[in-house]
Structures are given as structure tokens and as C-alpha cells.
């Protein structure tokens, strides 16, 4: 790209993308990616609430995937979609090509986005099967297994959480007992040290009023026991959330073979647990835009001027 073209493209990239649909852009932009593409192409403006609201010259699968990413991405990541603002208008193609695009979005989501999530959830064999999926039928079979195993892991994590709650209550009772015994048996203070509560041990060793100290320790020990188990609870919660994400994301991936917007839900489900998910999703969109008819070239200066003019309107 020439220096002149880069100068023209920079303001385009700075157009602010937002979730949802918008009556008309404001001074900072403020549209979804498909609405920004309408402005850049010089088409009559329309708010986009669903893919069918896009002009007929927009590829329905590509617009659906872009819209799904637009609404799911965090703000800083969402701006990456502006790299495609000139490639959506004029991308519509024959039904067979649009079907190929839908299949590509779904299968590549299975191959590239699901495996890191499955690995993180402790399902490496399923991750490997997703990475090597070669057709929709085999991919869906693997995804149904992932749905079932993710659900089972989520339930198991919930059971572990209940077990941890019981263990925490038991730990509180045991440690409170040790604290009380410490007034008569110095060896019990060592139990408090071993339990990671050295300040309580020190208070037991130096307490001058056993009655008042015991009352204080009952409260302090309950709080200390809860804190000592918090990390374990967080671990159980994360494991459960990750397993639940596997089940939900596998379901979305199955739907994606018929509904391109569901392919964006695959990225949305995996992103909190797999670093780099949004970058992969943008790469998949880039490659899908390379299938079939390419959008006609839009003059960068004209696109920039249209976007700037839209910003200037009251």
C-alpha cells in the first residue's frame, strides 16, 4: 500500500465500532462493522439489527459472522474489524459459494478456536480430533462428544465445589479447636503455624485473657478458615466455568454449520479461556472473504471522505 493510501486508510481505521445497531454515526463514528461498510461504500445508510438488514450486495454468511464478532468482542479487539470495512460491500455470491463460506467458517472454528479451549479444560484427545476434522459430519460427531464431556465436567466441578464448602466448614471447626487448645497446650499453637495462621498462633502464645481471646479467636478462625479455602473454591469455579464453556461452545459450533453467526459464538465462548481467540477469528474472517467473489475495489480517499462526512453530520 502506498504512503498516500496509508494516509487515507488511517482515519478509516479510527472509526469507532460499537455493539448493536445505530440510527446514524456520531462525531466519533459509532456504528457496527456492517453499518461502517455501508457508509464507506457510499450506500444509503441503514441501521443493521440483523444480517437480513444488510444490503443485498453483502454476503450473508460473511456479514453474519462479522456482526457476531462485532457484538461479542471487547472494544479494543472490535476495532480490528475495521480492516475489513472495504471488503463487505459487493461480496455477495451464488448460493453454492455462500454455502462454502458458511462451511468454512464453521469448520475452521472447530479446527482453530475450539482446540485451545479443550486443552485448557483437560480434554486433549478431543482437541486433537477437532484440529484434524476434515468434514462437517466428523466434526459434528466430535462436537457432540465435547458437549457431553463438557457437561459432565461442569457437573463434577459443581460437586467439587459442594465438597470444598464442607471441607472448609470442617477446617474452620478443627482450627478453632486448635486455637482454643493452644491456651493449655503450646503444641497446638504449632498446628496453627502449620495451617498457615502464624498470627493466630502468636496471639494464642501471648494472650493474657483467655476468655476474651477465645471469643475473638472463634470469629477470627471462621474468617481465616474461609480465606484459606478461597483459592480452592476459585479453582473449582474456574474448572466449572471452563467445562461449561466447552459444552456451550460445542453446541454453538454444531449450529454454525447452518448459521454463520453461531461461528462467532464459538469465539465468544472460547475467548475468556484461550488467549488469542479473537485474533484467530479475524484470520478466519479474512480467509473466508477470499472465497468466491471479491468486493470491488473502493477508492480509499473516497471511503475516507464518506466516513468523515458522516461524522460531520449533526
Protein architecture, described:
With 314 residues, this protein is mainly alpha-helical. Residues 1-6 and 161-170 have low confidence and may be disordered. It is flat. It is built from 13 helices and 2 strands, in the order αββαααααααααααα. α3 (60-72) packs parallel to α11 (260-270) and α5 packs antiparallel against α12 (277-289).
Describe the largest sheet.
Answer: 2 strands, parallel
Our Rg estimate from Cα atoms comes to: 28 Å
How many E-type strands?
2
How confident overall, as mean pLDDT?
79
- Find the structural class using helix and strand composition: mainly alpha
The residue ranges in which pLDDT falls below 50 over 5 or more consecutive positions are: 1-6, 161-170
The largest sheet has its strands arranged as 1-2
| First and last CA, distance | 33 Å
Our count of helices gives 13
Shape: flat
Helix content: 55-70%
Strand content: under 5%
SSE string, helices as H and strands as E? HEEHHHHHHHHHHHH
